[in-house]
Amino acid sequence: MIGDHILVLPGGGYEDLAAHEGEPVQKWLERAGVAASVCPYPVNSRHPLPLEAIRAEIRRVREAGAERIGLMGFSAGGHAAASAALAPGARPDERVDAVVLGYPVVSMELETHAGSRRALLGDEPADNLRAQTSVDRMVTPQAPPFFIWHTAPDDAVPVEHSYRLASALARAGVNHEFHVFAEGGHGLGIRDVPLGAVVWRELCERWLGTRGWLPREV
To answer: Given this model, what pLDDT does residue 199 score?
Structure first.
């Protein structure tokens, strides 16, 4: 048995996987006391291929003995993580138990982030496809708990994305924690984080600890 496990999904606009949002995050989680690995979901691939690949990795980790599986995603990786957690049609062994999102792409109906939308859905996706792939529209009362953080000055993926998801979680009565920091831009990961936002890791560790994901509450 390997106990609990968190899959890390880097950002990169569905065109690349940002290295600083992958292995460094994995190592931080492991130092905190939870097993983790980077999930190399396919990029430059149209929907639903990334979703299917993430669900396959969830099944693989569960078959290896994970009792609970969490997802931690950043930017477009946040959209991928939230999709895997919320999209309908998941098998019982593909469901996850917690989701952590940093400055996530949430809505494909907003004009931003156009690069992620283009890479995932094509140049001119139909309105119904944009709606179907907007994770704020996927929330149900059965969703797992979420921890979300964003920065107010983010001009690549505006904080409106996270507000939409947090509002949907609140309406559905889903347990969640949501932080917006006054400083910082996009793509911060765990490096070069401004003073105001650097506490996201401490807050996240506390959130995970209170749910039994860490060896002790931090």
So the answer is: 87
